[in-house]
Amino acid sequence: MFETFIFICLCSWIHICLLGVFGVDEVKSVSVMEGDSVTLNTDDTDIQRNDQILWRFGHNNILIAQINRKNNKSKCHYNNAAGRFRDRLQLDHQTGSLSITNTTTTDSGLYKVTSSRTETPLSTFNLTVYAHLPVPVVSRDCASSSSSSQQNCSLVCSVVNVGHVTLSWYKGNSLLSSISVSDLSISLSLPLEVEYQDKNSYSCVLNNPISNQTQHLDITQLCHTCEGRTCGDISIYLLKHGLTILYVVLISAAAAGFLLIVAAVMIFCTCRKHKEVNHVGKYDLMLIHL
Prior knowledge:
Layout: H1 2-22, E1 27-33, E2 38-40, H2 45-49, E3 52-57, E4 62-68, E5 73-76, E6 89-91, E7 98-100, E8 109-115, E9 118-130, E10 137-140, E11 152-162, E12 165-171, E13 174-181, E14 186-195, E15 202-208, E16 211-216, H3 219-223, H4 231-289
Parallel strand pairs: 1-9
Antiparallel strand pairs: 2-7, 3-4, 3-8, 4-5, 6-7, 8-9, 10-11, 11-14, 12-13, 12-15, 15-16
Signal peptide: 1-29
Domain Ig-like: 136-220
Keywords: Membrane, Signal, Transmembrane, Transmembrane helix
């Protein structure tokens, strides 16, 4: 009996503590795409009866807007929160709801509604603003191909300047691999190796909780042409014929050098012979004069 009483008291204490931290409502998650508008609806009769409604942003509880229901006036504190909400806040006097227009990723965070009578949040929202997703780029990765994998084509799917996303490879509707990141403005890449003759459909998908972008793979276009050869064919060709090409280059250089030497000797001999003829002619002329 005593243990039951202790358990009931403990539960009551935890409940009171949770109410003191979170208020009458739990945190409501709201997601929106960057550039869209969002309305944080209070939907609370207690808020509507209060004389003054205060909207606060972030963990520092920065005051960004307030409604005085007694005189039906409202005010937006645009200079607060480093001016990030300038000319983008709208208040509903009847419901106390707050609207944010032309949202940006910096608008993400906690929004709390309090009244002038208590500092306990009456409603708390966790807003997440997602940036627009780029279309993934699929390219051939010839550097990853080797002579031992001449039947396979190495590909890579990549995106830049993304955050809070997942990049995935799909074969039809089946997930092959994926990579996720929670940081902002980061680059991601995900490799894939397929056979040249593969007839299955592949796609690279970039997604966040509210949107996605898909790039479908064309194996014929990406894998079967690498300046007229597949990547594997080029590697094998270089391995087989690399030394032969080197020998040809060396022999050609030697032959060119030999021809230059022969040409130089012939020019020298011609010039010398012409000089000797001129000398003999001058000697004959001297004898005639004598």
